[in-house]
Each structure stands twice: as structure tokens, then as C-alpha cells.
Amino acid sequence: MNNKSPINAQSFVLALNSGTSTLKFSLFHQESLHKQWSGLISGIGETLGYMELTDSHGRVQQQKEAHYRNMEDASFAIISWLQDNIKQCQISSIGYRVTQGGTVHRKPEVIDQHLLQDLKLLTYPDPNQMRLEIMMITTFMDEYPKLLHVACFDTNFHQDMSETNKYYALPAKYRAQGLMRNGAHGLSCEYIMQKLNSCHAFINQKKIIIAHLGSRSSLTSVKDGKCFDTTCGVSTYGGMVMGSGSGDLDPGAILFILQKNDLTPEELDVELGSESGLKALAGTGDIIQLLKSAAQDKRAEEAINRYCYQAQKFIGALAAGLGGLDLLIFTGGIGENSPQIRERICSSLSFLGINIDHMQNLHSEKLISGRNAGVIVRVMATDEAMMIAIHTRGELYSAGAKETLTKLPISV
Predict the structure, then answer these.
(1) Model-level pTM greater than 0.85?
(2) Catalytic hit among 154, 229, 326, 383
């Protein structure tokens, strides 16, 4: 661990982002928003988990295997790392990615007991994920009660969808109860739009599709600089098939499952969100592993075909809704790092003007569209943690909460 260049006088924002079996964390300088440290705990709830810590240059500084029984264990592992290092700096605030906040909570918001109670009542769309997020938040709030804690809702970007695209064709009572299409990966979309503003002129006049492809995937269309439509519905595993998520299902399929099996809502959530998708089709939701075994494994090839076809289908549908397409952005773990998946998806979309350059496609963070293509296709790295830090710092300054700075031992 590098213990040089202490920055004792500076304060930091801690950004946290939990998945079903992962917990990502990053430390940003409060003023410059320079990312000083980032880390990932994976394998939460499995026999053996893994913690990796990376410095500001992207170099891995620490790797550790351990058993993390649940999100609380993973949270305490980060807290322990903060407290076990020897140099002093200040943590001013902690920001959290929160899957959704219903109809009331959209914009970034300081967390208090009233907000926590509201979030506990919103577990119906994705009970397992929301339960994990609340566990993470309460663990850190209990450990650092004097800090400013901020919820950054992943659904904020999608609030501008029209009523035509936001609500289901169901009786009005369900809409009154708050049932609507929440969308997903809103923080990622915010970050991508900010980056596009810096490299494309008149971006708010462009018709854009952002394909965030990862263990959970969604596609979002943007018009006039705002969300127009998205593939995810009320839960984060609606839309296209995912690593372990079912994607869209006919209501009859859900009725069939409930009638044929004695499942509670919580058990059904696990079935649809953790045991379905590519994992159900081919035994694993790991796209890289599926690509490696596709030549010898028909199930793996079928799973990849299903994934890419659904992405093609949704790109076509979203482009139709926009009335055309100017930019297609690939981001997320798969979107950024799998040239094979990008090429498979784009191979059947020439009718939309999508044509990618094979050699350019082999590189990340590149313009990959062909010379005469009608649609600009880019690969762009997203940074949800950065958006969490930006929103958290904004709440910190607007609340005038600099007096909440608390010293924590950390190596910088």
C-alpha cells in the first residue's frame, strides 16, 4: 500500500453502489472530484468472496479473499479498511446508489429516518435488491451518524418520460398506488450524457440510444436531452434478458409459475432476478465464459444469440419511437469490454444506418462506426460512482454541511 503524499487537509466523498452479490466503493476528493481509491467486493453470499482495491492510477494495490455472508459483512469490510489505514484525511459525506424511490423520491436526497421508512415500503418492485441497499445504508449510517448521507436514485434520469411511455395499461387504481415504469441505470445515463456534451455539438438535438450492457442490462432512448423511453419496467430485471434476470415476461407466464409452484413473492423475486436469464439458459450468466465455450456448447451459443437478438430488437423499437437514430452508445461491463457482443448486435442493424468498423471495434472508448455509416456508434466507459459523488457533493454544499466533516484513517 502506498503511504506517501498524505493529504491531511482535504476531505473526501465516499460513493457506494451495491448489487445482488457485489459492493463497489470509491473515494473522491471533495473539491476536484479526483478519484483517489476504488474497490470492489464480489461473491457476497457465496462460499468465497473477493475484495480488490485500486489506486488513482488504476493499479491494483490490494487483493483479499474472504467469506462475506451478506451485505452487512461487505459493508463492515469497507469500514474496517477505512479504519485500519494509518494516514488521516476527512470523509465529509457518503452517497449511495438507490435503485428507486417510487413516485415521491427521484432527485438526490439527504437520508433521514423518514426517507429510510419510505424506502422500506418500496421493496415491492425488487425486494431482494432494495433490502440489500437498505442494509448497506443503515450499516454505514449507524457507524458514521454525524456524516451527511445522500441517496442518489437510479430512476431520476427517467422521470421525464411521457405518460405514454411511463405507465402501464392497467386500471387507474394501480397507477394511483405508484405502479409505473421506473427504468434502470439512470446514473450511468446521466454520466454518458455529460460526456457526450463535451465531445459532440448540439447533443440535445440528437436522437440517442444508450445501451448499458452488463450483468443487468437496459437500453434507454434520449430525445431533446431527456429520457424518452427505456426497456426496464417497474423492476431492474425487466426488458431484455440478463445474466440472471428473466427480462420481460408475459403476465400469463408469471401466473403459470404461481399456479404451478407454491412460491412467496420473495421467492418469486429470487427466481426471476437471480436464477433466470442466461444463467437458466446455459448454467452461467457470465458472457465472457459463454463466449469462450460457445463453439463447443450449444446452450452457450443459444444464450448469446438470445441476448444479442433481444438487444437488436430493442434498439430497433427504441429507434422507431425516436423517429430515427443519430448516436448509439455501448457502455457497461459488457458494452465496454466485449467487441464480439457489440459486433453481433450491430451485424443485423444496417437497415438503421448502423455499420461498425471491425478494427475500431476491437478497442474500448472509441468511435467504432464505419466511415459511411448513417449512425454514430461509440464505446464509452461509464462511471456511476462519479455521478454519485457529484450529487452527494451538491447536497453537501447546498445543506451547508461542512461542519459534519469527520476524520477517518485512510492511506492516500
Answers:
(1) yes
(2) 154
